[in-house]
Every structure is written in C-alpha cells, then in structure tokens.
Design goal:
Strand content: under 5%
Helix content: over 70%
Shape: globular
Largest sheet: none
Number of helices: 13
Order of helices and strands: HHHHHHHHHHHHH
CATH architecture: Orthogonal Bundle
Structural class: mainly alpha
CATH topology: ABC transporter involved in vitamin B12 uptake, BtuC
Distance between the termini: 47 Å
Number of domains: 1
Radius of gyration: 19 Å
C-alpha cells in the first residue's frame, strides 16, 4: 500500500492534522525556549507530566487533563521557588521533575495489570488520536497561539533583553509566568503525538536546524516551523510505509534535517 492510499483512512488524516498543528506550535515555542535558554525546563515539564498521566490512569479519568493540570502546577512551583530561594532554576527543575517521575512510577505501580495507555503516553502513538483529541488539540493550540501572537513583541523583547523590558514598563514577572504556563500546556498537547520521552525534542531540534540558516528572528520563527512540519511529514510517511513507531520516526527525521543542514552550511566554509 502506498502513501496516497494510506491518506484515505480517517485515522491517518487525524494523525496528520494533529502532527502539523503540534509541530507548528512546538516550533514557535522552540524559538522562545532557545532564546531564553529554557531547554531543560521544557524537558522537565515533559517528564513531570508522567505523574499527571499516572493520576488520570489510577482514577480512571482522562490522563491528558491530569497531565495538563500537573504540568501547570509544576511550572507554577518552579516559578515560585525561583523567586523565593537562592537555588538555580536548573537545580529546582532537576529536583521537581525527578520527584514527579518517582511519583508517577509509584502511582502506576498501584494500578495492577498491563497499561497500554501508559505506553502510548510515554512513547507517543499519533495514529490513535481520536476526533475529540483532535478538536481539543486544535482549540488549545489556537488559543495558545493567539496569546503568543498578541504578545509577540513583549516576549521577543523579554527574551532578548530582560533589563530593557523592565525599563520599558513591561510586566516582566507576569509575562514570564504566563510563558511558563503556556509552554507547559503546549508540551502536554504534544505528548499524544510524540510521547513524554520525545516531545521536548521537537521543541529543540527544528529551532536548532533553523538557526543554521537564519539571519533574523523573523526568519528563525519561519524556518523553525518549516523544519518542524517537514519532520512531522517525513517521519509520519516513513512510519506508515515501514510500520515503525511514529514518534521516533518524527524525531529522527528532525535530527536528519539538522545534520543535513549542518553539512550544507559547513561545506562552503571547507572549500574556502
């Protein structure tokens, strides 16, 4: 069966739409994550969400909703402790996300029997996305994206020069906290597509690839989205054609694009 035939199946269409939406949202956040050096924070959110997923599974309720709640709680706690302690953000994130992982493992252990849902949240299974999942992803991504568009100038100034943002009269603390919360929600939306283990990679790798070719911040945003979407499309195509895990294929496609871009950029320098 070729890729055209596969695209006629509704579950493949849902997966493709969800992947494109999540890829674009995570790529946009990836620029802010890169500029503000928040890569470890995004990794921490992804892994901490396991505790929320475990709570949902244990209670027999929607794991994504609990993951969203727990991730926002995690982001809020990190932000609060940054202001109230002398510990570095990396130390706080390390403490909280490893504790959340431990809590998640403990709670999962309380639920007897094989848990196929848990595996899909850990490693992602984009082909299992339901219509209701797609609606939730689309609406949430639209709302989060709208906030980022409305506040894009403030967030760019904050990312590039925090002191100047403060002098300019921006509500720096509120904007920072809001970014933490929105990033937490964006990561949770991507979990169904890529899984807890891999979701942060789509925040980081496309932006890293885009940096190889970008001369301006605007081009960095555009190319980050382009590389993310190419990663999703290529990864899904390989996954469907060869019956391979979708999340892994998407991230490996992103990695291949990064190294391909690196070779393109570096070859002219070698000739010189």
């Amino acid at each position: 069966m070729n890729i055209i035939d596969l695209l006629t199946y509704p579950f493949v269409q849902r997966a493709l739409i969800a992947g494109v939406i999540s890829g674009a949202l995570l790529a946009i956040f990836g620029v802010y994550v890169s500029l503000r050096k928040m890569s470890f924070f995004s990794e921490g959110i992804a892994h901490a969400s396991l505790a929320g997923v475990a709570i949902g599974i244990l209670l027999g309720q929607e794991p994504v909703l609990w993951a969203a709640f727990y991730s926002v709680l995690f982001a809020s706690t990190v932000y609060y402790l940054e202001k109230k302690t002398r510990l570095s953000p990396d130390s706080l994130i390390g403490i909280l996300f490893t504790s959340s992982l431990a809590l998640g493992v403990l709670l999962i252990n309380l639920k007897s029997g094989y848990q196929p849902d848990l595996l899909s949240f850990l490693f992602g299974n984009i082909l299992t996305i339901r219509s209701i999942d797609l609606v939730v992803i689309a609406i949430a991504a639209l709302l989060i994206g709208a906030v980022l568009v409305l506040k894009r100038k403030q967030y760019l100034l904050l990312a590039l020069n925090k002191e100047l943002a403060q002098v300019s009269g921006l509500r720096v603390e509120w904007l920072s906290y809001l970014l933490y919360v929105l990033l937490a929600l964006a990561v949770v939306l991507g979990i169904k597509v890529l899984g807890i283990v891999l979701v942060s990679a789509l925040l980081i790798i496309p932006t890293a690839a885009a940096k190889l070719f970008s001369a301006t911040v605007k081009s960095l945003f555009v190319l980050s989205v382009v590389f993310a979407e190419l990663s999703v499309l290529i990864g899904m195509a390989v996954s469907l054609l060869f019956n391979l895990p979708s999340g892994s294929c998407i991230i490996l496609a992103a990695t291949a694009l990064f190294f391909g871009g690196f070779l393109i950029v570096s070859v002219p320098h070698r000739r010189k």
